[in-house]
């Protein structure tokens, strides 16, 4: 279902007028109230009244993660901290977290976009919704919680982790829709399997999965193992949290960006110029309705492309591709750009393997080495008589096959290690870190 049809199916021309009006207001507000932003605009020689068309967006300076760090904790707010209704924070790469604040009006907008996400993921008012995103400073849990309440779902606020209890609640409360990270969805699938619970025996039908990168191959695994339709939800704290975009169940092919609230651009991160629709680059967002913390041209570090083609679901909002990687988790190995998701796309789905893998990058003197560990599945272990040691001819053959696949996709040779089922780290409820770059340590 479409939660807000008057917005989500608005003709593009009308939408652009709305966006322009909101953009003008937001730039004005930030310029008047945030000394940091005023200084940035002054330096760039732009004043709010210069924004006459949507194309003038390109004249505004970018905002970056480092700007949050430099103004920690409240320097980017348009209101005194005493006027906030809530504060969230996400872990920064170094030391201090990235802090984001919301007024009560912001919380209403946030609930609205999260309600839209749930509706486009298959939820109907009255459905039981198991919310397995972490509650707390992380935006996932509370963001989805209020969206779900707004749309009339029956919320089970279980938060992340505690798989035993998750399963009991899935069985006893009969959630039809679940929200969690894709890696945690796999953890749940495995736990159900280990207890001999057939997914078909549960009322669970839909998954709203995101907060970390995943691939189509991973979607296939999750859908098959949990017996659900899984869609991708995207968002980030600096822009609002979950609810920036969400796939529709009709197409499951790109997440509609809620463009009445968030203006999207894709730029080439080197030249900082906008790229064409369909071309891959860095996602940049400008918030159009946020009060406490409007962000202007926030460079997300997330790599994706935009698709303006009409969608079967009827929404007129552009769709963004999956996040193909990040400008900063992009590994450069022997001069070649490598994204962990490329490894996932190459190996997940190989019949003998399970979807659990880890990348370790090391440097022997001057040469970078990429080690990819991936688990074989139970079937393969059984086929070897249950004694997986890594030395059999079949193991050698499979290793070589994986190496060749990786070479084909990455263009570099990786060392592949097949490991027995259950040996690699699992998501314990939140985002899973799949890359260990020992070159930096
Ligand atoms: O992860 C918000 C969120 C919660 C999104 C629940 C979806 C569901 P942060 O902790 O600030 O916020 O992390 C934001 O996570 O810049 C991306 O790199 C990554 N990310 C979020 N969603 C996706 C996704 C939340 N669907 C950062 N695919 C973003 C790939 C994602 N990466």
UniProtKB/TrEMBL annotation:
Pathway: Aromatic compound metabolism; phenylacetate degradation
Keyword Ligase: yes
SUPFAM superfamilies, alphabetized: Acetyl-CoA synthetase-like
UniProt entry tagged with the keyword Ligase: yes
A Pfam family this chain is assigned to: AMP-binding_C_2
UniProt enzyme class: ligase
Enzyme Commission code: 6.2.1.30
One Gene Ontology term of the molecular function aspect: nucleotide binding
CDD domains: PaaK (cd05913)
Residue ranges occupied by any AMP-dependent synthetase/ligase domain in the UniProt entry: 78-285
Reactions listed under catalytic activity: 2-phenylacetate + ATP + CoA = phenylacetyl-CoA + AMP + diphosphate
One GO BP annotation of this record: phenylacetate catabolic process
InterPro entries in the cross-refs: Adenylate-forming_Reductase, AMP-bd_C_sf, AMP-dep_Lig_C, AMP-dep_synth/lig_dom, ANL_N_sf, PA_CoA_ligase
Domain AMP-dependent ligase C-terminal: 335-439
Segment forming the signal sequence: none
Keywords recorded for this protein, A-Z: Ligase, Nucleotide-binding
Complex formation: Monomer.
Similarity comment: family membership: Belongs to the phenylacetyl-CoA ligase family.
Primary role: Catalyzes the activation of phenylacetic acid (PA) to phenylacetyl-CoA (PA-CoA).
The protein, known as: Phenylacetate-coenzyme A ligase
Originating organism: Candidatus Segetimicrobium genomatis
């Amino acid at each position: 279902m479409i939660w807000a049809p008057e917005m989500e199916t608005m003709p593009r021309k009308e939408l652009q007028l709305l966006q322009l009006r909101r953009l003008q207001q937001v730039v004005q507000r930030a310029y008047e109230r945030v000394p940091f932003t005023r200084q940035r605009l002054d330096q760039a020689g732009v004043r709010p009244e210069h924004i006459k068309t949507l194309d003038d967006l390109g004249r505004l300076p970018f905002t970056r993660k480092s700007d949050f760090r430099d103004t920690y904790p409240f320097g980017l707010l348009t209101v005194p901290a005493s006027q906030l209704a809530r504060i969230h924070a996400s872990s920064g790469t170094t030391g201090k977290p990235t802090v984001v604040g919301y007024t009560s009006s912001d919380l209403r907008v946030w609930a609205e976009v999260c309600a839209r996400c749930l509706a486009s993921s298959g939820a109907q008012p009255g459905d039981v919704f198991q919310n397995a995103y972490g509650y707390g400073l992380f935006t996932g849990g509370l963001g989805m919680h209020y969206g779900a309440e707004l749309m009339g779902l029956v919320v089970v606020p279980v938060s992340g982790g505690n798989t035993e209890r998750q399963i009991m609640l899935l069985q006893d409360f009969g959630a039809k829709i679940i929200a969690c990270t894709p890696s945690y969805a796999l953890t749940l699938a495995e736990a159900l399997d280990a207890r001999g619970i057939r997914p078909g025996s549960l009322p669970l039908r839909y998954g709203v999965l995101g907060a970390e990168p995943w691939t189509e191959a991973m979607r296939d695994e999750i859908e098959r193992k949990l017996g659900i339709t899984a869609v991708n939800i995207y968002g980030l704290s600096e822009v609002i949290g979950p609810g920036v975009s969400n796939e529709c169940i009709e197409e499951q092919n790109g997440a509609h960006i809620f463009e009445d609230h968030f203006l999207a651009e894709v730029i080439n991160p080197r030249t900082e110029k906008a790229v064409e629709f369909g071309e891959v680059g860095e996602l940049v967002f400008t918030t159009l309705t946020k009060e406490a913390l409007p962000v202007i041209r926030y460079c997300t570090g997330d790599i994706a492309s935009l698709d303006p083609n009409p969608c079967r679901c009827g929404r007129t909002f552009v769709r963004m591709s999956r996040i193909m990687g990040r400008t900063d988790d992009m590994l450069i190995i022997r001069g070649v750009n490598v994204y962990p998701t490329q490894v996932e796309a190459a190996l997940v789905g190989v019949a003998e393997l399970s979807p659990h893998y880890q990348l370790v990058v090391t440097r022997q003197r001057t040469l970078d080495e990429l080690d990819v560990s991936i688990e074989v599945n139970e079937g393969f272990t059984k086929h070897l008589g249950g004694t997986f040691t890594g030395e059999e001819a079949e193991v050698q053959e499979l290793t070589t096959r994986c190496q060749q696949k990786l070479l084909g996709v990455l263009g570099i040779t990786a060392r592949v290690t097949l490991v027995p089922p259950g040996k690699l780290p699992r998501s314990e409820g939140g985002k899973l870190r799949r890359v260990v770059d020992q070159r930096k340590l």
